[in-house]
Amino acid sequence: MTALLDRGLDFEVALLGDPAGNEEVFAPLRDRLGDRLAAWGFAPDRREYDAHLEAADIVVSCADQEYFGIAVAEAIHAGCYPVLPRRQVYPSLYGRLCRGRHFYGSVAELVDLLADLITGDACGHVCSLDVDVDAFCWPRLAPEYDNLIAETCSVAAAGRAGKGEGS
User: How sure is the predictor about 143, in pLDDT bands with cuts at 50, 70 and 90?
Assistant: First the structure.
């Protein structure tokens, strides 16, 4: 963010999530962003969180460790253009679906890609990731989980009943 500010680029940012344990890292950035900071910290309810995602144009992950990245999937589903670290799981999740510039391998690549997106010089959102992540949404997954849990309970109950009959 500071490199983008140093370039004089015009943007707003929402830093969502609980900064607990990292306040000393984020406080100087929060101060430097000033009026450019559209939101900070943990959203108090789901509606507010969704509203931030729907208002956003770009989602950036700088995670050191990621197994799936549910927050990124939610932002993509809301229509955000993803900018993601190549070193994480994202290329295997989204790489075959991407036809735009989405992955970065260094801080310099991240800054350049974000600068291009902010100024409109990037290739744009030319993939269907917002539709592709729909399969990961809770309304799609919940019935599958319900069925799996019901089947597991049924099998467990049948096993207990079978053991009880022979006693």
Answer: confident
